What we know:
30% of the residues lie in helices and 26% in strands. The chain is of the alpha/beta class and 457 residues long. The chain has three domains: 2-145 and 271-333, FAD/NAD(P)-binding domain, CATH 3.50.50.60; 155-268, FAD/NAD(P)-binding domain, CATH 3.50.50; 352-454, FAD/NAD-linked reductase, C-terminal dimerisation domain (Enolase-like, domain 1). The strands form five sheets. Strands 1, 2, 3, 4, 5, 6 and 17 form a seven-stranded mixed sheet that branches. A five-stranded parallel sheet has the order 8-15-9-10-11, with helices on one face. A five-stranded antiparallel sheet has the order 18-19-22-21-20, with helices on both faces. Strand 4 (115-121) and strand 5 (124-129) form a beta hairpin. Helix 1 runs parallel beside helix 7 (318-333), helix 3 packs antiparallel against helix 4 (80-103) and helix 3 crosses helix 5 (183-194). The longest helix is centred in the first third of the chain and has 24 residues, at 80-103. The protein is globular and about 70 Å long. The relative contact order is 0.11.
Amino acid sequence: METSCDLIIIGGGQAGIPLAQDLAAMGKQIVLAERKYLGGSCVNFGCTPTKAAIASARLAHMSRRGGEFGIRIPTVYVDFGAVIQRAQKIALTSRDYLDHSFETTKNPKLLRGHARLDGRADGKFRVRVGDHVITADQVVVNTGTRSVVPDIDGLKEIKFIHAGNWLEWAVQPDHLAMIGGGAIGLEMAQFYRRLGSRVTVIEFGSHIAGHEDPDIADAMQAILQGEGIEFRLRTAVKNIRSDDSELILGLGEDGSTELRATHVFVATGRFPNTDDIGLETVGVATTEHGIIKVDERLASNVKGIWAAGDVRGGPQFTHTSWDDYRILLSQIAGNGSRTTKRVVPYAVFTDPELGRVGMTEMEARQGGHQFKIGWFNMSDSGKAYEIGETAGVIKVIIDASTNLILGAAVLAANAAELVHIYITLMNAGAPYTVIREAIHIHPTLAEALQSAITDIK
Length: 457
């Protein structure tokens, strides 16, 4: 069966779905091809279910802390299977909503199946989706990423957990070895630990959360260690083998140091799903790691082919993918004003959270900036003390000549919300003195954001 359209979107992630719907509403004929589930990684195994699971883990953690607040809870029973089921249900509800939104519409047309570019025909791009052949004037690639499987001897011979399949593991690990100390590794390490698993994080780098400044990473590690998470830094996993009910990880350059665990979670990065979609048939350029090379308009080197979401390189977050949709809508059917010149914040959803935006101190130094640093310990916050959430720090990098905020790290309760005050100032191009001179409600955690910059001269 052959269909002609104005544009085909390969992948129904956070950029692809709204772009398809908005372009169709403008009268363009749109096809959306999705190999498996609508919603991308966020809905199906990322943001949505992980935050649901983290909420369960926090409840267990706070229940154990009840005595600090004068509330005695003698026993905290964790039903790990029920926690997983709840996360699955929330993910499924979101996915079902997306599915239903395409059931009664013919434009955009949803095709299920693996989509693959197949050269050109009569000036249009050919894309095969199962038995369908689509010819389109333009193509948007929104195929996302998958978990990297590192080259560890024996890893492929065992069953291991990763970001894409953790919802399928309804049995709680007794001792989890987490390979990787990035955002996914840290969030999930705390999740399993708070539900009762022993957790050891193995990180090859010199500190966890490798993109962060060492002082922020060290503060995060101290908090997580306080909950009983173990860390092995500057450590490589050389090999893994199975021994009855245990897995034996050989650590170090020669693998001579052994770590025994019941389960392994691999969180060593993401790989773009561009290796089997026929990009070579039309000459789309990629990096050596499979990322599609794009300009600030998200246009590839081939006119008419665009990339959105994780496959376009740069920040790999749901919110940047969604903003990619706005960029492409602007480029394809608008005035072309939106580009990837943008302020990109993010968060690590440990507890306390890390809310981040802009440059780290390391990046500011490397960029040759003259800057000032604001710092605040959350233990000095009245509201944090009152609610028993005193862990964490705030660090703000200020340009010395302009007083503009170059970057900020907020490690605190509700930091993913709090950091938006700094984000807004950065988007507005306003100096940090706007916060300094403002009146903040007392008692609030937001007062700490002001306190962090009050003494900057």
